[in-house]
Amino acid sequence: MLTSLVILIVLVVLFMAVNARQNGCLVGKANENYRFGVTAPLNIDWLDLASLHAGGILNWSAKNNPALPAGMDYLRIVNVDDKTYKTLPASLPGMVKKYPESVWLIGNEPDRYFYQDSITAESYGERYFQLASIIRSQDPSARIGFGTVIQPTPIRIRYLERALDRLAQLAGGTEKAMALIDIWSIHNFILNEDPNEWGAGVPVGFENDYSDAVRIPISDYNDTHSISIFTQRVIAFRQWMAKIGQRDKPLWITEYGSIFPPIDPPDSDYYNVSDQDTAAFLVSTFDFLMTATDSNTGLVSDGNRLVQRWFWYSLNDHRYSYGGSFFDPDNGNAITPVGEAFINYTAKLPVCYLPLPAFLKE
Length: 362
Hints:
The protein is of the alpha/beta class. It has ten helices and ten strands. It has two domains: about 30 residues; about 325 residues, Alpha-Beta Barrel (TIM Barrel), CATH 3.20.20.80.
């Protein structure tokens, strides 16, 4: 009986090896599709998620386990705005126990003034410390993400530095503070930072004092989908991570895209970016993210790559609201040109990770 089982296992492994080589890769190599993620602002029911060949999804929530295709994981986000935070420390332990081994991103654009979480850097450091400590105590296998600023510009990096200073004070030193961070999470939109104008504004707490950081104005709307600016910001952020001793942590871009819509809503006149231009930007970012390495700043365990995972905005937002939607919710969830570009890209990636059949796991 034992001999027969051994022979069966050997045959299965050989089959997997042959199949993997036929796909142009070796058994044991990571599935590259894992790196590609999507963000879902609307209901995902009845969407053909499997066709995307994506490795992850988020919907700015943490309370449920959505039904997902095999190979797609779910990132949990806990908001830290003033209203949500009032009850979060009490409810979080139960959620962590209910969903063990999850990825938890603490905060969603805490730097945004008025929008999203909208808190000071010091408050973010305090709330991160409390929530990360709860997650660690309830589930040591969980992974926790820090940051999630709207874009990695100098003034936002200064915001993170102030948050880290406060986190270190509460944790009992820099080393203990960094031990609470498993993943660095940023968004990488390209938005104007002039106050009282369109875009991202300045971080909370920086409204009246810009002396310790530089604001980046964006006056040309075409810059919002500039591959040059996108790559420069990623490279600079990885350099900063290395500077503060965090090179050994993965960097995830948990939201980015081409923000201007391809069409106008009724009775309005927006600046538009075509699906073709947005799709070209998507492909350009993927080409960069898949190949960008640096022997001084990249993650050594990932071949010195700069970024480990990235999540596009969006899966299914209204096309008159923002650019980049893969499915059109106002047209029977029809696939868009941007969605087709995503599928064409991910479908060509070799799927090298071949899980054992169920009967060998039992």
